[in-house]
Specification:
Layout: H1 2-20, H2 25-34, H3 39-60, H4 69-91, H5 95-127, H6 131-136, H7 138-154, H8 159-169, H9 175-199, H10 205-224, H11 231-254
């Protein structure tokens, strides 16, 4: 009962963070580990818990993507194929191997979260609108997207920031359209990954579903009250917590 309450609260906080500033996986994934879910299954269950938020967010931004419908099929195919590859990669590593990788993934995700705005601004400035597409070439851009989707299928945290960096590189500047496409691609990566995890029996449905209920509820409540809370304070708190958790995982894996 206590662990169910713990996961529900973690889901509520994680869902609220996703709505307000991002970084909900920094809460939900460790919470699943703390209640005894093995690392690989905890990661898969975290993706399952995050999936409804991606889908509902993509639906909410659908109107903002109207001018970019020509990208949906191509991006969707890349997301499905390479998200599946990322999920497949997760399933071939053992819990012991994944435990050694987790601290580095967490560190990468925390750095992305902390410096994501600067990274996206730099990439957008270098891209220079459509010039970015001409300079890098369609093939290189799609390779970038493929790599991001593999990462997302393997480890969910930080996916949104990487996708925003990709979209900026592709020459986009409308943040609403970018957020919509980010959530659209994230949804497909998550759906494909969760389907693969489910077929392999790698999702803890009980613990994952408790977290999912919390994530959905927390995201909805936070979205309705977002204007009341300064997002900057939340970002700072998430970064501090993320650094602490990264240190904890390094300590557990290597010391």
């Amino acid at each position: 009962m206590l662990e169910a309450l713990f996961l529900l609260v973690a889901g509520l906080i994680g869902g609220a963070l996703n709505s307000l500033a991002g970084g909900g996986s920094f809460i939900v994934f460790p919470a699943l580990l703390f209640v005894g879910v093995p690392p690989v299954i905890a990661n898969a269950s975290n993706t399952y818990a995050a999936m409804p938020g991606y889908v509902s967010g993509a639906v909410g931004y659908w109107h903002a993507m109207a001018g970019h419908k020509d990208k949906l099929v191509l991006y969707g195919v890349v997301a499905a194929v390479f998200g599946y590859i990322g999920a497949e990669l997760l399933l071939v590593v053992s819990d012991e191997q994944f435990s050694l990788v987790v601290p580095w993934l967490m560190l990468f995700a925390v750095l992305l979260f902390a410096f994501g705005n600067q990274i996206n601004a730099f990439v957008a400035a270098q891209g220079g609108g459509r010039r970015g597409m001409k300079t890098l070439g369609t093939t290189l851009l799609l390779a970038f997207l493929a790599g991001v989707c593999i990462y997302g299928g393997f480890f969910n945290a930080g996916l949104g920031i990487l996708l925003l960096a990709f979209l900026a590189t592709a020459g986009m500047s409308d943040i609403h359209a970018m957020n919509g496409l980010k959530l659209y691609v994230s949804s497909i990566v998550a759906i494909v990954a969760v389907a693969r995890f489910a077929l392999s029996g790698s999702i803890d449905w009980y613990h994952g579903s408790i977290a999912l209920v919390g994530v959905v509820t927390g995201g909805y409540v936070a979205a309705r009250n977002a204007h009341r809370i300064p997002s900057r304070w939340i970002r700072v708190a998430v970064i501090i917590y993320g650094v602490f958790m990264t240190g904890y995982f390094f300590w557990g894996a290597y010391l």
